[in-house]
Design brief:
alpha/beta, Serine Threonine Protein Phosphatase 5, Tetratricopeptide repeat, DNA Cyclobutane Dipyrimidine Photolyase, subunit A, domain 3, five-stranded parallel β-sheet, 14 helices, 7 strands, about 40% helix
């Protein structure tokens, strides 16, 4: 799939997924991953929708692993809703061994000497995507070997990801760093070789996995640099006043073309600088968001600014929006989230506890 697709193309792709192949190979860089993450992140498709289409074509037991992985996303969203800005600091197990709060130069320049990692970073810059296993390897090297704080490194990765979801990204970094669960995720060369198509020998990472937590800092990881990235906002035509009209407002994470189709309304994607200045994205990412939104909703208009600054907003007849952590301050009528597991909302300190509640039900 190319990243920008019509709604029907996305649905057809869901229907083509082999959940058994996914379960067997998802950890391999060449494995049968779903390629759905950009559309899940942008809200074009919902998690219950994916589940329904999978179960319509496959036995439930064949879908277990894929549905569990989808639940990870919902779990992270629940944590964000419950904890708010607390997810941007060490959540449960603060570490005192951070060497710095900058970017690891060798990682961001793709010059670590670990070929698979360097290629993954180069692909990130050109394709806006990185395999989940490679993300974990990058985070482990950054946080648990170089001891760089996860937040700036997480912002760097997020800047380039087409599927950049704030909760999934930063809480995944915390999971690897051991600040949300009391265990750091480790990586070594043999692990990377196992799950990639390369067999690079004799690198500075050719040690036992747990030894990486006590190894001396490799000289290649010593240099670090500040984070200076910003969102390049496009220049757009002025919007006409929405006074006296019904309006449906979308965030870059709630671009569901099936939402509120019964309402004759002006449909506007709000790109709020409150979030995009705080967590910048690249020009390619912003372009993807806009193009994907307008592909599934050709009449979608774009507004860069806060929602209540829309021309005529105060005089609009009705204003609707899907609930999301980034729009909680909007003075609108919210529609709730579509959940895989509505009986397991709220904060759970670990995915294990969350999943135990899910499976008991």
């Amino acid at each position: 799939m190319s990243f920008v697709n019509s709604y029907q193309e996305i649905l057809d792709h869901i229907d083509s997924i082999d959940p058994v192949a996914y379960a067997k190979s998802r950890n391999y860089l060449s494995g049968a991953v779903t390629q759905l993450s950009p559309y899940i992140t942008r809200g074009v498709i919902t998690l219950p929708q994916i589940r329904e289409r999978l179960l319509a074509r496959h036995p439930a037991k064949d879908c277990e692993k894929l549905l569990q992985e989808l639940a990870w996303r919902e779990y992270f969203q629940n944590v964000w809703f419950a904890k708010g800005d607390a997810i941007f600091a060490d959540l449960r197990f603060p570490r005192v061994d951070w060497r710095h709060e900058e970017l690891v130069s060798a990682l961001v320049s793709a010059e670590t000497g670990i070929d698979v990692v360097d290629e993954a970073v180069k692909d990130l810059y050109t394709a806006g995507y990185m395999h989940n296993h490679a993300r974990m390897w990058v985070a482990s090297i950054a946080c648990n070997i170089a001891c760089a704080h996860w937040l700036p490194m997480g912002k760097w990765l997020y800047y380039y990801l087409y599927d950049g979801d704030i909760a999934s990204n930063f809480l995944s970094w915390q999971w690897v760093a051991g600040t949300s669960v009391n265990k750091q995720y480790t990586v070594c060369q043999s692990l990377i070789n196992t799950f990639s198509d390369q067999s690079q020998p004799h690198t500075w990472l050719s040690v036992e996995r747990e030894a990486t937590l006590s190894m001396s800092l490799p000289s290649i990881l010593e240099t670090h640099e500040p984070f200076h990235l910003s969102t390049p906002y496009p220049t757009l035509p002025d919007l006409v006043s929405v006074s006296g009209t019904d309006i449906c407002l979308y965030t870059p994470w709630t671009l569901d073309p099936m939402w509120r189709t019964d309402v004759s309304a002006c449909r506007i994607l709000v790109i709020d600088p409150v979030w995009f200045d705080r967590f910048p994205v690249s020009e390619d990412v912003l372009d993807f968001i806009i193009r994907q939104g307008q592909t599934v909703m050709p009449d979608l208009e774009i507004w860069i600014g806060q929602a209540d600054a829309l021309p005529g907003f105060a005089e609009a007849s009705h204003v609707y929006a899907k609930q999301h952590p980034t729009n909680q301050s909007w003075p609108v009528t919210f529609d709730g989230r579509e959940l895989l597991h509505p009986h397991a909302v709220g904060y759970y300190p670990s995915f294990f506890k969350y999943w135990s509640t899910v499976t008991r039900s």
